[in-house]
Design a protein that fits this description.
This protein is α+β, with helices and mostly antiparallel strands. It is built from nine helices and seven strands; from the N terminus they run H-H-H-H-H-H-E-H-E-E-H-E-E-H-E-E. Strands 2-4-5-7-6 form a five-stranded mixed sheet. Strands 1-3 form a two-stranded antiparallel ribbon. The longest helix is centred in the middle third of the chain and has 74 residues. The chain starts with a helix and ends with a strand.
Length: 344
């Protein structure tokens, strides 16, 4: 609003300067005359602009129909024009009378034709600019609203995908507990305690679809403890989490499917020792997480399972450049899963 006021004032100052210059060129002795003339024109013009701007707020719903908008804005013009003339020349006559000077002008017929033409040009120009400004403002607001709706839709999709992970995650964890209950009650009790810790953390996961990598690693360690109990003597897990990476934001429960994949397609498929490496590095504005094993895999899977499929969908829903999931074979055997995320 302040910028528009400054622009409006600048226009009238420029017009006044041009009027003063014209007065000097024509040899008129009194420089106060153009000041009075332009001041008495600026006052009613400003009032008219304010009136039209206030009326324009009521017709924003017609911006998509320009003809209707202009008809509504112009319907009072036949009354506004004589009111404009009356106020302008009333002020002018009053000031000239106070100064003791006669107001000389062309015959009223010629004067009204001249001023009427100027008024119509001014009114049409202002209406066009007014329509353009209001249309642009409506477009910006619509773009902002659309962006907010798109962001809300992405967050809703993230929460839905996170909620899809919860039953999948719980099913596999409870299956681990059930396999220990009859063979090792103490280990089952420890596993249930770790499960309770996980449940307390994940009960509000739909309200927190993202968390720091440090918090995600704590969840992953609890899951790893459960799985190491189940496959005691058959798995070694090596952790290499760079401290600088712990503050990066990641999708909640994004690493559990990666570790679960190692157990399902590696540890469960071979009775010999399986080694798993979990690493996270932050560099050049990006976070890179790797989960790999030396299991029996020698061929890349043709399609993702539930866990990896959900994670890929969640990364796509983030709508960020650099967010991706990659699978690769290790040599001589095993799989490497790499998750890349932007991290400023």
């Amino acid at each position: 609003m302040r910028k528009l006021l400054l622009l409006w004032a600048s226009i009238w100052v420029l017009m006044l300067l041009l009027g003063v210059q014209e007065s000097l060129w024509s040899g008129r002795p009194h420089l106060w005359q153009p000041v009075v003339d332009y001041a008495t024109a600026a006052i009613p013009a400003t009032l008219l602009v304010i009136l039209q701007a206030r009326r324009g707020c009521r017709y924003d719903h017609l911006l998509q129909q320009p003809m209707s908008w202009f008809l509504h804005m112009w319907r009072w013009m036949p009354l506004q024009m004589p009111a404009y003339f009356a106020l302008m020349y009333g002020l002018r006559l009053g000031i000239y009378a106070v100064l003791g000077q006669p107001l000389r002008h062309a015959p009223w017929g010629e004067l009204l034709a001249y001023e009427g033409t100027k008024f119509l040009l001014f009114f049409g120009l202002f209406s066009g600019v007014h329509f353009g400004l209001r249309s642009y403002r409506a477009w910006v607001e619509e773009r902002l609203h659309s962006a907010q709706q798109a962001n809300l839709a992405r967050r809703t999709q993230l929460m839905q995908l996170t909620q899809q992970l919860q039953p999948h995650f719980l099913f596999n964890t409870l299956n681990t507990v059930s396999s220990l209950i009859h063979t090792d009650p103490e280990a089952a009790d420890h596993t249930l305690t770790r499960l309770a810790t996980l449940l307390r953390t994940t009960t509000d996961v739909s309200q927190h679809p993202e968390q720091t990598l440090g918090e995600e690693i704590e969840l992953l360690r609890a899951y790893a403890d459960i799985m190491e109990q189940r496959f005691a003597g058959r798995v070694e897990i090596h952790w290499n989490i760079e401290p600088a990476a712990s503050a990066c934001m990641v999708p909640t429960l994004c690493l559990q499917p990666l570790l679960e994949n190692c157990f399902r397609h590696g540890v469960e498929q071979r009775s010999a020792m399986i080694r798993i490496w979990i690493a996270a590095v932050r560099a050049s504005g990006a976070l890179e997480i790797k989960v790999e094993d030396d299991g029996p895999a020698t061929v890349l899977p043709t399609r993702y399972g539930v866990g990896l499929g959900n994670l890929e969908s969640r990364l796509s829903a983030r709508d960020e450049q650099g967010a991706q999931l990659e699978l690769a074979l290790r040599q001589p055997t095993g799989l490497r899963v790499t998750v890349s995320l932007p991290c400023a």
